[in-house]
Specification:
By secondary structure, this protein is an alpha/beta fold. It is built from 17 helices and ten strands. It folds into two domains: 167 residues, D-Maltodextrin-Binding Protein, domain 2 (3-Layer(aba) Sandwich), CATH 3.40.190; 127 residues, D-Maltodextrin-Binding Protein, domain 2 (3-Layer(aba) Sandwich), CATH 3.40.190.100. 51% of the residues lie in helices and 16% in strands. The strands form four sheets. A three-stranded antiparallel sheet has the order 3-10-4, sandwiched between helices. Strand 1, helix 3 and strand 2 form a beta-alpha-beta unit. It is globular, with a radius of gyration of 24 Å. Keywords: Signal. It comes from Pelagibaculum spongiae. One of its GO terms (molecular function) is transmembrane transporter activity. This is ABC transporter substrate-binding protein.
């Protein structure tokens, strides 16, 4: 009789308990997350693993990933379940095909304001010469940007050879007639070379003008101003001409923001709606991410360390992504990690 009464009591208790966490625990199960090989993506991957495990009762694990192989594998095999940071301009056709065939789903924007590209100058230069915030001002003061090898020329630092941005940067260099203004397009040799050129100029308070992108540690560490190249963004011309090596008549335009999404498998989204809902909300701005990546670089931190740093320092941000009843559970897990 005692066993019968206990069973009835237990059933009644379960019936009145909040169902959110229990449902999430029983429905989420095993989840695979692509840990891609750049810093912002590995931050998102470790964040998703921690929050899904401790906030939603998942059994999330990280698997190695990169843009093309991860996207292709998700469409063809449904694995991994989550790609935290997919730059759509590199994989748009494949991802859209997967969504149309109901194999994949868009979750949210990893970067709420999109991936950012542009031509930049240090803020201390704009403070002194406000007109340097525009391309007309840059050309007017071209002599400020001394070439490291030829003093008769001005220096514009472009994208390293072989990178996609080399094409867009070169076409915009032509469209803006920077050669006619006395500028030479310098190949920095590598991403490290380009970052090093900014750092060297900034630490010496020297003039610098060139291409860069965000989110990056460099733009988190050094305050730069994006130069106004045009009054508008001509996205279609950018796609049809600026991105093409054979672009015959490039026209000035600002860089359009790149769509950067979290993508999931349809099976994950269907079986784990609450966990999927978290991913629709999990997003950072370029400014936030630049600052976090700067900390990561300065402290030589790995994905796990920067994830803990973010959860400890930015609770007002991530608490907006999860149900209220899960916040304290995640905070306790961080404290005891």
């Amino acid at each position: 009789m005692k066993k019968v009464l206990y069973a009835v009591y237990l059933s009644s208790l379960l019936a009145i308990l909040p169902t959110t966490s229990f449902a999430a625990t029983t429905s989420c199960g095993k989840v695979t997350i692509a840990d891609m090989n750049w810093n912002s993506a590995t931050l998102f991957a470790h964040l998703d693993q921690f929050i899904l495990n401790h906030g939603f009762g998942c059994k999330a694990e990280l698997v190695p990933g990169d843009t093309m192989p991860t996207g292709t594998s998700m469409v063809e095999r449904g694995e991994p379940d989550i790609a935290p940071e997919i730059w759509m301009n590199a994989l748009k056709k494949t991802i859209n095909q997967g969504i149309a065939e109901k194999r994949l789903r868009h979750a949210g924007r990893s970067l709420s304001d999109g991936g950012e590209e542009g031509f930049w100058v240090p803020k201390y230069m704009v403070d002194k010469y406000p007109e340097l915030a525009t391309i007309a001002g840059i050309k007017k003061h071209a002599k400020l940007f001394k070439h490291p090898e030829d003093r008769s020329l001005s220096a514009f630092y472009g994208c390293p050879a072989g990178w996609n941005c080399q094409t867009t940067g070169t076409n915009l260099f032509r469209a803006l007639e920077l050669k006619q203004a006395g500028f030479d397009l310098i190949d920095p040799g590598s991403g490290a070379g380009l970052a090093g050129a900014i750092a060297k100029a900034y630490e010496r308070k020297q003039a610098w003008f060139g291409y860069y992108w965000a989110p990056t540690a460099i733009l988190g560490k050094y305050e730069m101003v994006k130069v106004q190249l045009s009054d508008s963004i001509d996205k279609q011309h950018y796609i049809d001409c600026i991105t093409q090596e054979e672009c015959q008549s490039p026209k000035a335009t600002m860089y359009p923001a790149a769509d950067v999404f979290t993508i999931t498998s349809e099976s994950f989204a269907s079986r784990s709606p609450q966990a999927f809902d978290y991913l629709t909300k999990r997003s950072l701005t370029n400014k936030q991410l630049n600052q976090i990546l700067a900390w990561m670089e300065e402290n030589q931190a790995d994905g796990e360390s920067v994830m803990l740093y973010f959860l400890e320092k930015y609770p007002e941000v991530w608490s907006q992504w999860v149900p209220k009843q899960n916040i304290q559970t995640i905070k306790s897990a961080v404290k005891n990690y």
